[in-house]
């Protein structure tokens, strides 16, 4: 199976179906609930496509350069940027579309409360962030210690957990409020992509270096790190898109800017006063 065949069958095709479903629903007047409509879906997905491409590119190039994983040169086009084939960059862009469209499908059909909360549960944001931080420190220590079988796992956790911590400290309470949608939107794409990845590995499209992975194979084929990769990337996407479209996030952001970036507020205030004086 060529890499582009994998992308077309397992990622692009279901994304096209969900996109068509979204367009049909919009024409029928079935839109997102008020609590999750602060930003247009296309903008939310587009932002995450850009972030995924920028943030994942150096990390994945390092993995290929250090032989954590490799691809069959006979099953790609041969167009390579850095150490990574163009098909891999295409996947960086397609996964946010796939997972984002599935998330918006759930948002349209599952019940969502439009009642805005009257409180901010700070501990609900701090505690999970701290717990994830402990895991990040353990992963960093594993890499520093030089345990070779933990290389892929350590690199993945060190790369993925910092942005997840930012998402949690900003809006873990918002994510918890929409936990049914968030959990389903993470679980279903993760399981689906894990099965699809197993097919690609079995076909020899790409290979995970057994010397740099812990050796646990799910179903006798899929390295557990690959399952964790899809889990973490879908967590990043679902958390991020949900927070971008949530009304609570847009109400919270100005307060965070005033608290942590007061110079921006002061600069805007000065410019506003200067503009008023010029009139």
Kindly list the characteristics that best describe this protein.
two-stranded antiparallel sheet; 6 strands; 73% helix; globular; 279 residues; mainly alpha
Short structural description:
A hairpin with a 2-residue loop joins strand 2 and strand 3. The N and C termini lie far apart (67 Å).
Summarize the helices and strands and which ones pair or pack.
Elements: H1 3-28, H2 41-65, E1 69-71, E2 80-81, E3 84-85, H3 86-109, H4 122-145, H5 151-177, H6 179-203, E4 206-208, E5 217-218, E6 222-223, H7 224-245, H8 247-260, H9 262-278
Antiparallel strand pairs: 1-4, 2-3, 5-6
Helix pairs in contact: 1-3, 2-3, 2-7, 3-6, 3-7, 4-5, 5-7, 6-7, 8-9
What does this protein look like?
β5 and β6 (222-223) form a beta hairpin. 73% of the residues lie in helices and 5% in strands. 33% of the residues are buried. The protein is globular. The protein has helices at residues 3-28, 41-65, 86-109, 122-145, 151-177, 179-203, 224-245, 247-260, 262-278, and strands at 69-71, 80-81, 84-85, 206-208, 217-218, 222-223. α3 (86-109) packs antiparallel against α6 (179-203) and α8 (247-260) packs across α9 (262-278). The protein has 279 residues and is mainly α. The chain has a two-stranded antiparallel sheet with strand order 1-4. Strands 2-3 form a two-stranded antiparallel ribbon. It has nine helices and six strands.
Helix and strand composition category: mainly alpha
Distance between the termini: 67 Å
**How would you spell out the order of helices and strands?**
HHEEEHHHHEEEHHH
Radius of gyration: 21 Å
- How helix-rich are the residues, as a percent range? over 70%
Q: How are the strands of the largest sheet arranged?
A: 1-4
Principal-axis shape: globular
Percent of sequence in beta strands:
5-15%
Average pLDDT score: 91
Number of extended strands = 6
Ranges with pLDDT <50 over ≥5 residues? none
């Amino acid at each position: 199976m060529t890499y582009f065949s994998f992308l077309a069958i397992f990622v692009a095709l279901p994304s096209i179906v969900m996109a068509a479903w979204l367009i049909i629903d919009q024409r029928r007047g079935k839109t997102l609930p008020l609590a999750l409509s602060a930003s247009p879906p296309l903008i939310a997905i587009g932002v995450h496509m850009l972030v995924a491409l920028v943030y994942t590119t150096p990390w994945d190039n390092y993995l290929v350069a250090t032989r954590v994983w490799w691809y069959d040169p006979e099953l790609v086009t041969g167009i390579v940027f850095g150490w990574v084939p163009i098909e891999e960059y295409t996947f960086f862009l397609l996964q946010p579309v796939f997972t984002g469209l599935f998330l918006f499908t759930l948002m349209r059909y599952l019940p969502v409360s439009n009642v805005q909360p009257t409180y901010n549960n700070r501990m609900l944001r701090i505690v999970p962030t701290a717990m994830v931080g402990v895991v990040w420190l353990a992963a960093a220590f594993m890499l520093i210690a030089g345990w070779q079988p933990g290389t892929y796992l350590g690199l993945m956790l060190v790369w993925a957990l910092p942005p997840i911590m930012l998402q949690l400290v900003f809006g873990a309470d918002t994510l918890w409020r929409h936990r049914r949608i968030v959990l389903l939107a993470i679980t279903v794409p993760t399981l689906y992509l894990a099965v699809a990845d197993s097919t690609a590995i079995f076909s020899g499209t790409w290979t995970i270096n057994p010397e740099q992975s812990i050796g646990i194979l799910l179903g006798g084929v899929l390295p557990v790190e690959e399952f964790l990769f899809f889990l973490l990337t879908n967590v990043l996407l679902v958390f991020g898109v949900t927070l971008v479209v949530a009304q609570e996030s847009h109400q919270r952001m100005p307060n965070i800017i005033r608290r942590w970036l007061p110079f921006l507020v002061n600069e805007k205030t000065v410019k506003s006063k200067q503009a008023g004086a010029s009139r």
